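Me: I'm a chemist; would you kindly supply a protein sequence with its structure tokens?

Assistant:
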Amino acid sequence: MNIFRFLSRLPQPLKALYILFIVVFIAGITLVLLRVPDASLWMSGGIGAAGLLLGLCLVVNVNKAAEGLAAAIAREKPMGIDFSTSFMAQPAFARFFGLMFVLVGAGFISSSVIGP
């Protein structure tokens, strides 16, 4: 699976949010490795916010994001496995995946706000 080809097949708000999530993750890891004070709180909050936005985009199906993700999974064959006939290539699974992103993102945000 080519990650750039996979991302190019996604509809626009979802594509931008995936890239944002990856950038926030890399920036957070960099902050932690540089031992910046409170870096783990910033990392947790940033990843949580990006994940929450990504999940909301999938759950609400903004610009057919869930359908686009399901179609991209069916066409790109992640890890060399053909998911075209699997439940993972269905928009309902993409929405469920988005719901999990919303819940985990909210947990990350709350842990960064309540954190030490």
